[in-house]
Amino acid sequence: MASIEQKFFDGFMLLVGVWIGAIAGIILFGNLTVGGGGHEEESSDLSAVDLVDDRIRPIGQVALIGDPDVGVRPVVSVVTDTVRAPLSGPQVYNAICYLCHAAPGVGGAPVLGDSTVWTPRLSQPAELIEDHVINGYQGELGYMPPKGGRLDFTDEEILEAIDFMLEAVE
Hints:
Elements: H1 4-34, H2 46-56, H3 89-101, H4 115-122, H5 126-135, E1 137-139, E2 142-144, H6 155-169
Antiparallel strand pairs: 1-2
Helix pairs in contact: 3-6
């Protein structure tokens, strides 16, 4: 009868044999599918190599100050502000104001056309309302970011939007 050590050794050698056989099978299968183990002639077509180089080239390069290999700096064009036509009150409302002034009002914003919510605000001077809209407001009636969060709008465009919203209440 075989001893425990002999049984262990036989089982271990069986596992090693299966492992070596699996590795040999993978290598054989790889050689068959690749086509001979990769000993084919290298392609002399440089355009294919150039295409691969272009695809894997890094997007940018690091250059140190004073590095003689840097070359000429590219000309950087300065983007100037484009002139756009001023927007009307309804256009400004549709661009930004409706986000908070549509039903239900966000952050205490009065809903467009709801005179009951607009009444406390309409009792204030027009200059104060304009100041709150242009410069922002935070109080018991709610929160208004400066220019509705769109600082790229001119004061005149914001005033047009105020007039549009107040006409809807009157």
